[in-house]
Amino acid sequence: MPRIFFEKQSYTCQDNESVLDCLTGHGVPIPSSCRSGICQTCLMRAVEGEVPLAAQQGLKETLRVQNYFLACACKPTNDLKVALPDTEIGARTKVTVLAKEVLGGNITRLRLGCTLPLDYHPGQFVQLHRDDGLVRSYSIASLPQLEEPLELHIRHLPDGRMSGWVHDILKTGDTLEISGPTGQGFYLPGQPDQGLLLIGTGSGLAPLWGIARDALAQGHTGPIHLYHGSRDASGLYLIDELRELVEQYPNLNYTPCLSGPNIPKGFTAGRAEQVAFSHLPKLTGWRVFLCGHPTMVAATKKKAFLTGASMKDIYADPFMIAADRVKPAA
Ligand code: FES
After folding, report:
1. Predicted local confidence at residue 294, as pLDDT
2. 15-69 pLDDT, tens per residue?
3. Ligand 1 mean position, distance from CA 60 (Å)
4. Alpha carbon distance 130, 160 (integer Å)
5. Around Cβ 175, how many Cβ atoms within 10 Å?
6. 298 CB less than 6 Å from ligand 1?
7. Ligand 1, from 18, 23, 24, 33: best to mutate by most atoms within 8 Å of Cβ?
8. Contacts for 52-55 with beta carbons within 8 Å, 24 or more apart?
9. What average pLDDT does the chain have?
10. Cβ–ligand 1 contact at 180 (below 6 Å)
């Protein structure tokens, strides 16, 4: 009978017993609700071992390739080492600041060298750890296949403890630690002609910059529309780099959007999500990536669904404002 390894203990799974029933039957608290493969509350990840296909029904492709599965629908036929999503972020890795640069929009771009190889996708996020225990999460903008150093965009927030420290004190050559990566908002090849819609505000451009370039580097031929929004032009960044990329790739469209009263030439008036939906009123068959303020992300996710995008094709990363956030931070 297969064994389930979870948090340094092993449990024997009876014939036809699910991972959820096995673990909870042994008194291990695993979150669950419907127990029938619908609500996805019992999401776990196989760290080692193969999960049956039935245990991944209905999950996003990006979760499937990372071996996530539904514990209530998983009746294993082989040994599995499993973890809960919140606990499998992984060990810390030392990184060195290779470069620090202030971009527009109050963004500091950090380029970090890792002491150990880091397996990640652009658009995922890592946790940055300061020596005193302060932790914040930031999205990854770099492309590992181009051997770019790990790149994070950190917006300097008023009273932001981590962002202020990064902006004012951290310097090239300093070392710190990261953990991760995690997150499911990244590009997967396989549907090269699918439309991709990317909408972000502020430092929400970081994952989108990574995802768009990743898609292009992997030969994506379908239309890619990137909308980056701010109140005024000083809140946007990488404008020239994005325009250069548009010159290079005819299937890439970039629209810098301004919601304030002053709209210089070359910018579009309106909030990024409103402009996007006015250009693309039907999203049937499109893949959508959203990153920014939680209110924008929640409303845009709903609207993307109502205009035809499938929920499994909508990837949303809201900024978390609380001190203990685990999602990309502004
Ligand atoms: S408990 Fe609902 S999907 Fe498993």
Report:
1. 87
2. 999 999 999 999 999 988 888 888 788 999 999 999 999 999 988 888 888 899 9
3. 15
4. 13
5. 12
6. no
7. 33
8. 52/76, 52/77, 55/19
9. 91
10. no
Q: 208-232: per-residue pLDDT in tens? A: 999 999 999 999 999 999 999 999 9
Q: How far is the CA of 186 from the centre of ligand 1 (A)?
A: 24
pTM recorded for the entire structure: 0.80
Kindly give the distance from the C-alpha atom of residue 72 to the centroid of ligand 1, in angstroms, as a whole number: 6
pLDDT of amino acid 158: 87
Place of tokens 């451009």: 205
**What distance in angstroms lies between residue 47's CA and the mean position of ligand 1's atoms?**
19
Check residue 86 and give its pLDDT. Answer: 61
The CA distance from 6 to 9, in Å, is: 5
List Cβ neighbours of 155 (8 Å cut-off, separation of 6 or more).
Answer: 105, 106, 107, 108, 163, 202, 203, 330
Atom of ligand 1 nearest to the CA of 73: 4
- pLDDT at residue 299, rounded to an integer: 95
Indicate the pairing of strand 196-201 with strand 224-230: parallel
Concatenated DSSP letters of 180-247: EEE-S-S---S-TTS-EEEEEEGGGHHHHHHHHHHHHHTT--S-EEEEEEESSGGG---HHHHHHHHH
Residues of the chain with pLDDT under 70: 86-91, 318-330
Which ligand 1 atom is nearest residue 31's CA?
Answer: 1
Query: At 56, which amino acid appears?
Result: Q
CA–CA separation, 33 vs 83, rounded Å? 18
